[in-house]
Amino acid sequence: MPLLVARLREHPGEAPAAQLLGQCHFDRKEYTEAAAALKQAAAATPKSAEVRFYLGSALGLAGRAPEAIEQLQEATRLDPAFAPAFRVLGMFQFQNGHLGPKTREALETAVRLDPEDARAAYWLGSYFFEMKDFAKARSQFERALALTPDSQQARLAYGRTLLSLGETERALEAFDAVLRTEPDSGPALLGRAKCLYAGQKPLPALAAAEEALHGVTDAAFERDGLWVLARIYRELGRTAEMQRAERRLAELDAARERREAKLEELQMLASKLHAEHDLPGVIRTLEESLAIQERQDSLVMLGDAYMATGRVAEAERCFLRAVQAGPEWAEASRRLELLRKRYGSKQ
């Protein structure tokens, strides 16, 4: 790597060296550094789908999903037969809450172009599961497991799908298979608890649910587990423990309501500051709001404030995030297009 770095200092536009350096950083999981090098390679070879694919992958893994999605979309336009680009594009879109037809189309294209890609089948199955099309989800998870029988991720997803279809015995087999390899897997333990509870076996269900919740920090997972746990306690007549679980559920719900109220308060304050032409105040308020939750309207307002204060690169990132943060919104796309026509891309 030092030789590549030295080479790029002497010849900053040399695409092969930049791409190789980027791939070296990528292999070492240094995704920010990989993205920086691959941007040089993309600037020198703008028609290379492979470079765009690696750049998009590095950006996504560095936590810069909107930029990643844009680069991967460009890779699929440059080479409509490049299956990995469709798979990673669909994966990042799905992970960032984009559940529209474009995500499904990307993942279905990846599966069609490379039927042996287990990861594409897994992500397409995950998309169908999220859309509650459990029969199609099951088919894709079965495909993924046939290609990679040792994938615990696919087996967990398969178990959840079987449980949603009411096939509790087969779902239990899937969760137990995961637990034989990963006995501390919280999702598998909770899946086991749900299967046993559905099969009217409350005592073993209780043991699995309590173990699943031991040391948990994720609020969504905790809520799911407590919901099951409260019902098991009720089944067993353990009223005091049931009430404790329900109180904790109420606390989690109250925390979520406080979060939503805070978001609304910040949004109203930002609108007030905007009307008063207090742009620094708008920026501070919306940055705080977006740290809690990304909203397209907040991103566009923040992008406008950045533009008005001369922070063009940050404005572009906001408009791009707005385009990628939810359903297609013409105003966000228009803002991004106008900025790039006026200043060029600052990414």
Short description:
The protein has 19 helices and no strands. It has helices at residues 2-10, 15-27, 31-44, 49-61, 65-78, 83-95, 101-113, 118-130, 134-147, 152-164, 168-181, 186-198, 202-212, 219-236, 239-275, 279-292, 296-308, 312-324, 330-343. The longest helix is centred in the C-terminal third of the chain and has 37 residues, at 239-275.
Protein traits:
Serine Threonine Protein Phosphatase 5, Tetratricopeptide repeat, 347 residues, globular
Uncertain runs with pLDDT below 50, 5 residues or more? 3-8
Strand composition percent: under 5%
CATH architecture of one domain: Alpha Horseshoe
Question: In angstroms, what is the radius of gyration?
Answer: 24 Å
CATH homology-level superfamily of one domain:
Tetratricopeptide repeat domain
**What is the structural class?**
mainly alpha
What is the string of helix and strand elements?
A: HHHHHHHHHHHHHHHHHHH
Shape: globular
Q: Which percent range fits the helix content?
A: over 70%
Mean pLDDT: 92
List how many beta strands DSSP finds: 0
Total helices: the number is 19
**CATH class of one domain, anyone?**
Mainly Alpha
Give a short account of the largest sheet: none
| Alpha carbon gap, first and last residue | 25 Å
Q: What name is given to the CATH topology of one domain?
A: Serine Threonine Protein Phosphatase 5, Tetratricopeptide repeat
